[in-house]
Every structure is written in C-alpha cells, then in structure tokens.
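Database export, one record per block. Field names are fixed; values are copied verbatim from the stored entry.
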Amino acid sequence: MAGNNGDQKTSVPSRVRQTGETERFARETGIRVEHSPLPETSLAQLALVQKLLRAHSASPDLIGIDVIWPEIIDEYLLDLKPYFSSEISSLDPDLIASFTVKGKVVSIPYHMQIGVLAYRTDLLRKYGYTRPPSTWDELERMAVRIQAGERAEGKKDFWGYVWQGAAAEGLTCNALEWQVSQGGGRIIEKNKTISVNNSAAIQSWQRAGRWIGWISPPGVLSYTEADATNVWASERAAFWRTWEWKYRLAHWREATLPDLTGYTSVPGGAAARVDVLGGTGLSVSRFSGHPQQAMALLRFFINDELASERNLAPAPGHTQPELYDLPWFVGANASSQKLGSPPRIINRPSDVTGQAYDKVSQAYIQAVHSVLTHERSATDAAALLEKELVVITGYKTGPPQPLTSGGN
C-alpha cells in the first residue's frame, strides 16, 4: 500500500528489527520499513503492543510476538495459515502449536530459543572436568570448586553461577526450570489445576535461595538478561543461564566470549531435565494498513533465517562452540552434539491462562523473589501464591501432572 510519500512501506516493532536485513529487503523490493521502539522486558512490550493494537489506526503492520502472547492478543492477529501453508508444513509441529489459537496460526516461529546453560570450556578443562553439569548438584559442586580456584588466583569478584534474578519475566523462566526439574509442576497444569504449592516446588526455590552469596553474587537478585551477560562478558563467571537458538549458533562469532563458551541444557533435578521455550514469532495485525507488504517482509525474514541456518560452516581456523545435550531444534549441527538423555522443552502456562497470564506471571515472580530475598519462607510464599492464583484464574488446586513425552 502506498505511504504518504508515495513509497510502499510497512512498520515493525524493534523486537524483530534486523537492520541489515531490512535494508536489503528495501533495496530488493522497494518497500520501506519503519521501526518503532519497544521496552526491554517482555511484559512491558506486551502492554505497549496491546495498546497499539487496540488503537487500530496506530497498529504496526508486522509484529514480533513473544511465545507467551498468542492467547492474549490472538483477536488482533491475522490467521497466517492460508498465506504460509508451505512454510508451516516444513516447521516443527510443536513450535507451530505454540503459536496456534483456536485453530488459527497467528504467528510464524522466528528465532525460537530455549533456556541453556553456558559454560567456560577452558575452566572446565583447567579443573579436570570432561563434561558440563547435568544436574543441579553437579552444577553446585563444579561452581564451588572453580570459584574457589579462580579467587585463589586473585579474581576476588569471580562467581560460579550467574542468572536472571530480577523481579521480571526472566525469573519466571528460571524458577519454572528449577521446579519442573524437581517435579514441582508447571505452576498451572494443562488440566487447569494450580499446582504450585507442593514440596518439590518449595525445595527448588529453597535451593536457589542458598545460591545467593554462595555461588551467585548478591546482586543477582536485580540481574536482568543484560546484567548477567555483562558479568559473563567480563569473564567473571563459570556458568551462565542464557538463551540460545539455531540462528545465533549459526552465527556463533557474534556471541559473547565465542572462543571460551560451550552450551548445554539447563541442569536437572529429581524429576527431569528441562529447558523453557522462548523466542519470537512473526504476526500480521488485522488492522494493518499494508498487509501485502507485511506478508512480504515476514516471508523475507523466514526465508533469510532458513537460508542462514543451512550455511553452518565455521569460519576458517575456528570450530563451532562445544554443544552438549541440547535439543535437536536448537543445535547448530546435530553431529556435533554429545547427546545423553534428551532434555524436555517446556512452555510457560500462558496456554492455559490466556489473558490472565501476565497477572499469573507477576504473582509468581513476586512469590519466588520474596523467597530469594528471604522476605518470606518458601512454604509461606507457596501457600500465599496458591491463594492468589485461585483468585486470578478461578481454577482449582491439584497435584503436579507428569510431563508428556514432549515435556509441555
């Protein structure tokens, strides 16, 4: 559709901004792309996107949506199934399912990612470890030993493990991995029962609380993704909980400390080893003023990513990062993985909470954070959270459900 200046254009929030790619798209198609800024955190981004979509006339054309958003904003999004049938058929059905609401495919998976544990390959070798930790107990033992050894050499601000402990969505992801791996449930189960108040969930929060000041810095309680990344980049940690996806592993030279970093799945507890699913899908607003241009840009992004993933050859003189026990869809090269027991990929409970997810997540964040800061005992926090979730959702309480074969 023509813009005011006579040029074709489309607008896209910065969640999907790829400056070099959009410039190439503009050169190849003559369609100008306008970017709009977004806040840093997922929930703040959601609030702004909802505001823009409700305004209709201010709606962006192409929208990058978090994997937890489909049930919340599906009424504002086009069903992409008629337009992208071939692309959809070539993608993993479980990933497509994460962006499907009432039979509508409201988004195409793009830069899908999972929680992973990054580790210093040089330090593991230095301290005699032949593989990264696969359990929380192993993580603690390795972190303690490496931290002590590095501090003895003068690195007084070196820590064993850094992660995202600020009262934000990143903490929901971390804590869900802790408690599901211990058998503590998904907060709200697939059968719409609230399962958070149980001994396994409580124990998992207590374990994380012990890390503060022991193997994790006290400041981790305010760490966002950027803060944890900065500690890692300054070579002051042995392990780091972060996100990875196939696209970035194909461009691993752009990663933080690329020559010193290996990746494995998040450690497991008594029940399983799990990684939370994250990432972005691309959607087109029902109120777009330029739907054809938005579709063209969406197809360009998807095809560009697929082409990039197919080109996985490492740069001359370099090998790809060490990968260990990662799910198949994130590994840059399946033959380079050292597979043990495959981890489960889990979703946050946005699918069963819909519009209420942001309130559920905020309540969960505050409960877990209160345990980490020792404001409340884990037992009290879980009991209070259970009552709050009953009010928010209207659901009944129940025990954690077994993980399905796919882990969701």
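Remark 1: The first helix runs from residue 19 to 29.
Remark 2: The first strand starts at residue 8 and ends at 13.
End of record.
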